[in-house]
Batch of 2 targets.
Target 1
Amino acid sequence: MPRDELERRIRDAVTREIEGGRPVLEGLEGRVVRRLARPAVRSPWWTRAMASLADTRIGLGWAVVGGVVTLAAGIFAGRGLFLNPNALSAAATDLFTVAAPGAKAVAVVGDFSAWQPIALFDHDGDGVWKVTVALPPGRYEYAYLVDGRWVGQDPLAAEYLRTFGKYVSVRYIGGDGE
Amino acid sequence: MEGGELELIQKSLQGDLEAWGEIVSRYKEAAFGIAVAILRNRADAEDAAQDAFVRAYQRLDRYDLSRKFSTWLFTVTANVAKNALRRRRPDPLPKEVWTADPAHMVWQEDMERSVREAVWGLPESYRAPLVLRYWHDLPLEEIGGVLGLRLGTVKTRLHRARALVRAELTARGVIRDAAG
């Protein structure tokens, strides 16, 4: 068998096997993004709070606020179980969006990110900032940071919590909040 | 760099997961190809590709923007797959892996089946360069970069890989001799 024919047959054999694997690759983007958006293993709250305090990327003040909110979320978790969740529509489940014309930097922080900032973007410059974060069904507490200013009352939220003078928004993904 | 790729990488560096999702979409099949070349199992290769994209995102600040992104990403993928291969012992035989896939039940022609089994029966050290060469169409230097091999080693392994496939086809009687 000439070398070029052997190479062609090798190429065919390799191509068939790899392209036959396409079905397992469907949705890989979502699986990767979900893993990145949510810590794979949730450490205890005190470990996360200490990590936030040790993180030099955010100011000490915000780290303290994040820790307080995390603690408050734990205290009020039981109360949240009795609330009737007003679930968002399916189209909005993963989308965090906030109108902030003229802002220089917008981020969302929440219990899904261990209260670490996830940047929002305003690609078309219309003042509406957004980011899509794929999250599994559940109840999530969050707030926006608009140029460093805490915005805890998202108009799209199902409800708000007010603790220690700060609001936190709550949304339910999946409809039942479980 | 492909159109918009640099922008996607820069957005990813700023934490834009949507941009990274687009990178995954563009490269998932190529990364899967490398992983399956090393692991020889689609389910394990999908896991490895997923791990590779997560690791690459977490280490994106180490990527030198002046270098070719695909080579860096493929190197991460190959390392993740090799680590997975080391953890997984023994390496399953190709027959046990592939015959369960119904897509291949129709693939009965002798020559095709023989070539397939000969290629996927090669040791990983020969199989991986072969896949990078004949499916990814990578230049020899880039194959060396991805697998951490010198150019001479890549050439030798490709030559031996072809010789092993030819010898296997001869032994099975689907070609008459090893010459050519």
Target 2
Amino acid sequence: MSSTQTEARPEKGGLIASTVSYMSGQLRQIGLFIALIVIVLFFQIVTQGITLSPRNVSNLIVQNSYILILAIGMVMVIIAGHIDLSVGSVVAVIGALAGVLNNKLGLDWGTTVVLCLIAGAVIGAWQGFWIAYFHIESFIVTLGGMLLFRGLAQILLHNTQISPFDDGFRAIGSGFLPDLGGGTSFLEPLTMILGVGAVVALVGMSVRSRRSRAKNGLALEPLGWFTLKTAFMAVLILGIAWLLASYRGTPVVLIILGVLVVVYSAVMANSVFGRHVYALGGNKRAAQLSGVKTDRVSFLLFVNIGVLSALAGIVFTAQLNLAGPSAGNGFELDAIAAVFIGGAAVSGGIGTIGGAIVGGLIIGVLNNGMTIMGVGTEWQEFIKGLVLLAAVAFDVVNKRRGARQG
Amino acid sequence: MAEDAILEMRAITKEFPGVKALSDVNLTVRRGEIHAICGENGAGKSTLMNVLSGVYPHGTYEGDIVFEGEICQFGGITDSEKAGIVIIHQELALSPYLSIAENIFIGNERGRAGWIDWGATETLARTYLERVGLHDNPATKANELGVGKQQLVEIAKALSKDVTLLILDEPTAALNDDDSDRLLDLMLELKQQGVTSILISHKLNEIKKVADTVTIIRDGQTIETLDAASPEVNEDRIIKGMVGRDLTHRFPEHTPHIGEELLRIEDWTVHHPSDRARVVVDHADLTVRAGEIVGIAGLMGAGRTELAMSVFGHSWGVDISGTVYKRGEPVNTRSVPAAIRAGLAYATEDRKTYGLNLIDDIARNVSAAGLSSLSNRLGWVDGNREHVVAEQYRRDMNIKAPSVSSIVGKLSGGNQQKVVLSKWMFADPDVLILDEPTRGIDVGAKYEIYTIINRLADEGKGVIVISSELPELLGLCDRIYTLSEGVITAEVTRSEASPERLMQSMTKIREEDHL
């Protein structure tokens, strides 16, 4: 058997020793996850159990969903070495558009959603054109976009608010999947079925990928670590399913978010397009000379974040059941913070979808926990700022440690 | 000899966690000499200079530095500069948007109480520029200067610090022959003015030209100190000391098997992107046959890289005209993907800027130009096969790294070059254009690269090698074109080629211009 990573061979040392040594090499990824768990447990204790109550977990997911959707688009843009400051304003303008279509023109929710997503793609194409083909810095183009689309939202709304929306539209933001138990069962059955299904899929895919690596003679994660990781994820998924099932079931946005995370993680890790994004951010000239159409990649990334911003706008508007001119104010900063807490590099080339999601959840849990504790918004901002700085400082320290060992 | 020594480094030992970078190194530099230090990459030359200049402060190494008869305990670069030791690193450190004068006095500004005296700055700058023979206006921005002139500004900057011992780390690595010669002449001139220099260089002919003494370092130890003037000390003698073995053949034996014409470039003309009137490549014709290694010789600025990059997907230049034929058929090379499809590959002269994603691992760099053969129709990459392929190249090419998951930025120059070559070999081209394939690579790794180039030719590929080092072209190529100011001035077969003959053709037009 050949192995590309001899130092990670499971047969060296015991199961525990190999797991520990492997973990120390993956400190950044694991550390972030552990930080999230520690923060959750901290709030669980100081809020006397409210944080992990079924109702709060459900709220946590629903209320952070739009930031997480934005973070997915944002991390891809940042990996490519760009940035998008306009997403908050795009949320507002799409909300306004949805209001006009659904409330004023009386279109049904399906048509409204499709038209809003197309509008998002057009907005993304507009900004992508200037960035990719006109070669203006994304910072400038999207700073312009931030003002432009905020203004457009106010124009569409005539500086007032639009409300209400129809039930179908509202369900995207605050709805739940149908309760198979008819509202009487102790645990909502559909949620538990989805939870178990997710665990089966996770274990199946992990084992299959491990077998495939072994068949190709590639280095494997230590068996101990693999088992621990998979078991932990399974317990986590079942735990969340349990909590959701004992409240109102599965939020619709969780399904949307789950699909997005799975699809985009796969795209970034395993698709040619994903590779091209990393190659562009890592070294643009080298990517071009390797045959990557970097301009097209940049353009598509902005179309993509335009669509995702539109989706976030739909979810946010549906949740509030209201389209307002100041909707989405500051969302771009939350999304960018999530991406950098999640380990992405300002200079591009480094970052993951999973990292951005965990980063977004850390911000979400901090917001939620401090609100429950009754901490004022001024201190919430203050603490979030420190957390962002601490996460990046940890990165720097970790990198230096790696450099000394390397 | 100790009494006229300006510098003695005694029994220097420097350890990094797990590695002994220097072990009991002794170095004596006499006042007023040019002292060359040779050694392969990783031999410990830079570490030794970093100890000397205080980058590794006193206390982090063992042994003594005796400078001007006193034991020195430098806590940092400022201390060593105060003592008169200035190091000029391989990567130039000028601030691009500041003027020459501002750069010379950066950190050492002329003025009073924090306010700059511009008059003094400019007048003094002029005197230092005079000494290094640079006649540009001191108000010129650094980024408007070529590398050769930037190097001179660095030296002027060193002079402004009242340097007594000047250390030059690979000063000519990025320079063309003309600029290199000017720099070497300047070193000799500074020697007349009483400046002692330490020269770290890969280029043995330069050492032979300017150095009085040569110290050879290998595996963190001083091997020997030679008198450069002695007739027995020639390039082969120095190489022997560096690699620890007789390198009787600097180039591997190779019998070419040349077949049909693979690539023909006809009437190729390229204009400069920022000055469209300027012709950079002028009606060039060139052919490469299967199994053939073809060299392109030319001075810096002759248009070698511009010719190669314009052929490879129009990556350089504007108003490009001419035709590229593959096996007699015209092919489209207007974009990089089209050029790759046409079976071309171009390995750049500047692998860090244009060739590699330094923050990514070996596997992903190797696959970068050949992802299509690793992915299915939907665009999903088979990551396992990618690792298997990369692992195969790691072994075939002898890339020294713990695994294909190692980050490319941490590899040595020679190993990075092997990654670049692996990338293009995996793309499976018919013709490879290798631009300065051995720049900044030590002697041992060069031999390996030559072997790989020969192997590519034996597989029936056509190889074009662009190089500034004439011995390399003479030792490697079956046929050599010379390029001068964008014009192909001669085509010489291996048997007819000699350095004199090539140099003559490489400078052809320039001389006519002077008539």
